[in-house]
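In this supplementary section we document a worked example of the pipeline. Step one takes a protein sequence of length 149 as its only input; no multiple sequence alignment statistics are reported here. Step two produces a three-dimensional model, which step three serialises into structure tokens for compact storage. The input and output of this example are shown verbatim.
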Amino acid sequence: MTGEWEKLLEGIYLNHRGRQGYEEFVSKIREFIAQEIQGLMPKLEDIGKGGEEEEDDEVKGKENDVMKCKCGGEVREFFKGWRCSSCNSVVWKTILGKRITRRQASLLFQGKEVKMKGFVSKSGKKFSATVFVEDGRVKFKFDNDKNAK
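The serialised model returned by step three reads:
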């Protein structure tokens, strides 16, 4: 397409068509843009029918699959995790190399502690921990440690 436009511009120059050739060229581009926009409008309207979109690309799910947070808010899935619409608590889909399942996330949002294996430390060592949500984020509790990290 841009190659065609360049040929048209070159023809304007080589044929000494000047201002008239330029105006015809711009008119053709405007027509093209109007046709493209007209073709896209139905698609854009279909997108808009889905309701308001979340800023962070909310993932569409079934109505009966809605998770609830212990605060009573609705938990919504987005590209990288889940977030409570009320208290803004977040559980990421991947934490320290460990993929978190929807079931595990649901338990965490309910205020439960979940024992998990397969985390990878910064030094590359695998470890297990009990995971829970506190102050809006995931925290770890280790068997040999009384305090959360």
